[in-house]
Amino acid sequence: MGFASIILLGTLLLTLPISNTTGKPLAFIDALFTATSATCVTGLVVKDTGTFFTTFGQVVIIMLIQVGGLGFMTMATLFALILKRRISLRDRLLLQEAMNQNTMEGIVRLIRKVLLFSLIIEGAAAILLTIRWSVDMPFGKALYFGIFHAISMFNNAGFDLFGNFRSLTGYVYDPLVNFVVMFLIVSGGIGFIVLSDLVDFKRTRRISLHSKVVLSMTAFLIVFGAIVIFVFEYSNPRTLGSLNWGGKILGSLFQSVTPRTAGANTIDLGSMRQASQFFMIILMFIGASPGSTGGGIKTTTFTIIIGAVISMLRGREDIVLFRYRLAQERIFKALTITLLALLLVLSVAMVLSTTEDSPFLMILYETTSAFGTVGLTMGLTTKLSLIGKILISLTMFAGRLGPITMAYALGPKKGKELYRHPEGKIIIG
Predict the structure, then answer these.
(1) What is the pLDDT of residues 115-139, one digit of tens each?
(2) Beta-bridge partners for 339
């Protein structure tokens, strides 16, 4: 309800004539799509952010991104702390669920860290980007661009102000822009719990199992993804083929990082080979990590699924990660999330394949991008029909909240069963 309220408020503000350069009210469905994309930190746009929206409209969008990225409960807690209001037990329980924590212990302290980390990382990145872009544009504009893109990229939103849906394609050779943006994407995507662990490591000398899994899987996906994209696109003249070695490496690395649900790109995604596009669909489906600004089924869920397969193949009863055994409840939850997400993506893609006149791979790419709150597109977003815009908006909303949250919120509540049925056997495989 909190996210829905923010989206509705953003929609009303974006429909105002002051929000766009035409001076006329924006169509409600387009305003709703944009507000949903911003609040759900996705980055899919039907109107170009840099050229269509005025400064007022862009400020509304970046505020929606900040609130949506940090989370409704985090922002509510911020206002409560500013007003020196006591955080009730009910609020702490909600925060525990919102941050995917197992306990309420230290939850308010974690929220303070979330806000502090966001301010420091976004501020430092904004300064670096401002310095870089002040070479290409007036300082005032460079400062505005620096702040906007620092917030957008840290929250994995992917909105940009460069116009004509170009994203960061003009900076494919620029190491500063590439590495600053990649750092923002990764730091926003690994989750605030992991950031807290890393900051406290010097004092505690330990990293939690969760953080180890997130960091190792994130590093593997980035490196493996960069290698796959480099190999597939190396000779493609419309993407990496026309770049020198430095451009090829930066381009491969950036396109491997951005499916972490960021939505920015430095090469033309529509010109990539189908193998690369399908591989990016897989990366987008996996997404970021729990307690982060990103979407997808999450790196931890993917790790548990892989761990379950390996354990089954080796004939082992338990899934062991870093010498810790995982509870069966976690395994069932990972399977549930994956299957619900897969069902959602395939169902929406199936419906869109009848309402949109586009190749199925492009539709699947768009749908997965919406579910993973990624924001990457092969060019379908601006061509979506009314039904397509509504479906993609709902998919972004479901992707930001997560399939488990949606199922719990909408499904019937049942108490604990007081009995167990006798065990049965089914032949599998």
Answers:
(1) 888 889 999 999 999 999 999 899 9
(2) none
Q: How far is CA 228 from CA 129, 169, 216, 232, 354, in A?
A: 29, 20, 18, 6, 32
For tokens 């955080």, name the residue: 87
Q: Which residue has the higher pLDDT, 112 or 376?
A: 376
Strand runs labelled E in 128-177: none
341: nearest Cα among 288, 384, 286: 286
DSSP category for residue 53? B
Output the CA–CA distances (angstroms, integers) from residue 14 to 46, 288, 391, in the order listed: 13, 28, 20
- In three-state form (DSSP H/G/I as H, E/B as E, the rest C), the secondary structure along 96-124 is HHHCCCCCCCCHHHHHHHHHHHHHHHHHH
Distance CA 294, CA 157 (A): 8
Q: Full-prediction pTM beyond 0.70?
A: yes
Burial classification of residue 329, based on how many CB atoms lie within 10 Å of its CB (0-12 exposed, 13-18 middle, 19 or more buried): exposed
For 240, the 3-state DSSP assignment is: coil
Distance CA 13, CA 69 (A): 19
Q: Cα–Cα distance between 259 and 218 in angstroms, integer?
A: 11
* Cβ pair 261, 294 in contact under 8 A: yes
d(CA 296, CA 282): 10
CB atoms within 10 A of CB 333: 14
Buried b (16+ CB within 10 A) or exposed e, 155-193: bbbbbbbbeebebbbebbebeebbebbbbbbbbbbbbbb
Identify the burial level of 415 via C-beta atoms within 10 angstroms of its C-beta, where 0-12 means exposed, 13-18 middle and 19 or more buried: exposed
